Amino acid sequence: MCTPARQSASYRPWRAESSVFGMAVIEVSGLTKRYGDRTVVNGVSFTVAEGEIFGILGENGAGKTTTVECIAGLRSPDGGAISVLGLDARRDHERLRGLVGVQLQESQLQDRLRVGEALQLYASFYPDPADWRELLASVGLTEQVNTPYAKLSGGQKQRLSIALALIGNPRVAILDELTTGLDPRARREIWKLIRAIRDRGVTVLLVTHFMDEAERLCDRLAVLVDGGLAALDTPAGLIAGVGDVDGYRANLEDAFLALTAPSHDS
């Protein structure tokens, strides 16, 4: 039976490097973010390579969303450095706006705004936007072009969020908790869409707390625990670090539970 805690010497997943992919397009070094006396991201470092689907995995409150908001230039770090496509994420935010597409967890549009209107509006923010009609077709929303936002299903709203993140022809897409609240069929449709985004040449930074989603989609995973980096590896590497659990072959959920288990110091 496997019972490693987060600081246990019995569980040491190796840090899988990104050299098997392309060059690094995101470099995070010593990222720290505080809100008052509370440190929510504590010295996190990792790189994301061109062509990866790179996942950030963690429990609620682990610092996942704050990390990607700093990468997107939406929050200022209190320490560390972030480079995206060779640019400083905060200082060069305006230059990065057309290179990085962002879909955040709490994204909402006005209820009466129609799908086509939303895409045309967002396209007007960029000097060289994608063809919004082609993008609409690629996310399977052509028939909803005149549908008000409030009338869309949960899955359709998520597809629209992805389309809005891609309207500026970005090289990097940051997607936060895309499938929360969706039924299994809608989740699978979003997974297919994420793979299609990567196939178009877009590097994907994906935040999730779903184990099956992380295992099926992500090339590598950064696991955050209490704001710190607990592991950085491929899904297979994380699983291999656990071994068998109660006589059964471990899965990613077992690896995650091992990493996030409370410490019991004697």
UniProtKB/TrEMBL annotation:
Annotated PROSITE patterns: ABC_TRANSPORTER_1, ABC_TRANSPORTER_2
Keyword Nucleotide-binding listed: yes
Protein keywords: Antibiotic resistance, ATP-binding, Cell membrane, Membrane, Nucleotide-binding, Translocase, Transport
GO molecular function: ATP binding; ATP hydrolysis activity
Annotated compartments: Cell membrane
Every ABC transporter domain range: 26-251
InterPro entries xref list: AAA+_ATPase, ABC_transporter-like_ATP-bd, ABC_transporter-like_CS, ABC_transporter_ATP-binding, P-loop_NTPase
GO CC annotations, alphabetized: plasma membrane
Gene3D superfamilies for the chain: P-loop containing nucleotide triphosphate hydrolases
Top-level taxon of the source organism: Bacteria
Gene Ontology annotations of biological process type: response to antibiotic
Positions of transmembrane segments: none
Topology with respect to the bilayer: Peripheral membrane protein
Cited SUPFAM superfamilies: P-loop containing nucleoside triphosphate hydrolases (SSF52540)
Annotated protein name in UniProt: ABC transporter domain-containing protein
Organism lineage string: Bacteria, Bacillati, Actinomycetota, Actinomycetes, Micromonosporales
